[in-house]
Structures are given as structure tokens and as C-alpha cells.
Design brief:
- With about 200 residues, this protein is an all-alpha fold.
- It has one domain.
- It is built from ten helices and no strands.
């Protein structure tokens, strides 16, 4: 973490704004706007891009991924520009928590991979690119979105150290732990060999 130089009031404002931004359930919004039905009743019922893809609409899934990534990035960049680097990391964490536990959905949100990647891109773009490349390589070779997300998150501390970004290590570690917690069911299915492949409809994720 960077040195705390902002007032606690400003950090609280950054956290609240980040949480509210992160809480926007873009997957549900896009599914409704594009007439794809209630995302909670499709596939796993998750609000992320992987479940949106199960509707068969790749455009909707891509938009969901970009917007979920964007809300984490925007929260961080706005706090950085208006307050400082300490507030930027607080806002990023709050946005991530907002995506996982959105107040609008009774705290039942997504699993955070897209938002995680967006935060890393805004935090330090080479780190974000390394994590995105890890996700893409894993998704292409193993054909499991959940495993790709776990690989991207799990290897991010290594990229952080290699890129000499020690001030971001704590934030990245917290986000990684939360991603693994949210993917507990996926990890069990991966071990059992029952985790669905990318592109399959009506599967849990």
C-alpha cells in the first residue's frame, strides 16, 4: 500500500463512491436491455460475462466484461485524480467488494475476475496486461473461464514482484484471496473434472 496521506474523510468518500460504482450489475442491466431474459434464471444465475455468454449473445457478454472491468478502473482512476494514490487503492478495493456484494442485489454479486483485471490495468497497465495475457492463454489452452480467472489472479503476485510494484502487492493479494473464495465451488468442480468448458450453456459457474 502507498503511504496514507489523505484524510480519513476523503478516504471514506472514495470508498463509498467506489462501492456504489462497483455495485452496478451490468450483466443484469445488459441482459434486460437486450431482451435476453432474467440473468438470475439463466445458467448459474451469476451476473458476470461468463453467464451472459450462456444466453448465446457474444456481444452482450463482451459488453458485460468491458463494463465490469471498466467500473473497477474508473473508480481507481477517479480517486487517483481527485484525491491521491492511497484513495485510489481504497476505491479499487471498495469497487471490487461492490461487485462481489452489491447492495442492489441483496449482496449476491459476481465473482470479480473482470473487475479484478480492470483494476490491475488502471493500477499499473503493464501489470494488468500481464494478468490479461495469463487469463487469455489459460482460457485458450484449458477452455475453462473459471480456471483462467484463477490462474490470472494466482499469478498476479508474481507479476507484481517482477514488475517492481511492491506498493500494489497488498491490494492485489486481497483481491486474489477474495477471487479464490468466490470460486470455491468452481475449484471443487475443477478437481472433480466436472467444471464446464467455455461456450457451454446452462451450466454452473
Amino acid at each position: 500500500m502507498p503511504d496514507i496521506t489523505s484524510t480519513y474523510q476523503m478516504l471514506a468518500i472514495a470508498a463509498l463512491a467506489g462501492y456504489l460504482l462497483g455495485s452496478i450489475p451490468f450483466g443484469i442491466v445488459i441482459a434486460r436491455v437486450m431482451g435476453l431474459g432474467n440473468l438470475r434464471e439463466i445458467g448459474s444465475g451469476n451476473i458476470g460475462a461468463t453467464n451472459v455468454l450462456r444466453t448465446g449473445n457474444k456481444t452482450a457478454a463482451a459488453l458485460t466484461a468491458m463494463l465490469d472491468a471498466g467500473k473497477g478502473a474508473v473508480a481507481l482512476l477517479l480517486a487517483r485524480a481527485l484525491i491521491g494514490e492511497d484513495a485510489a487503492q481504497i476505491a479499487a478495493l471498495a469497487a471490487f467488494l461492490g461487485h462481489l456484494f452489491p447492495i442492489w442485489l441483496r449482496f449476491r454479486g459476481g465473482k470479480g475476475v473482470a473487475t479484478f483485471l480492470g483494476i490491475l490495468l488502471a493500477l499499473y497497465w503493464p501489470l494488468g496486461l500481464a494478468a490479461c495475457a495469463t487469463w487469455l492463454f489459460s482460457a485458450i489452452t484449458m477452455r475453462m473461464s473459471s480456471l483462467a480467472g484463477l490462474m490470472a489472479a494466482g499469478l498476479s503476485p508474481m507479476w507484481t514482484i517482477m514488475l517492481d510494484q511492491g506498493q500494489t502487492l497488498l491490494l492485489g493479494a486481497i483481491l486474489t484471496v477474495l477471487i479464490y473464495i468466490r470460486h470455491a465451488a468452481n475449484i471443487k468442480r475443477i478437481k472433480a473434472g466436472t467444471e464446464p468448458k467455455i461456450g457451454r450453456k446452462n451450466s454452473a459457474s
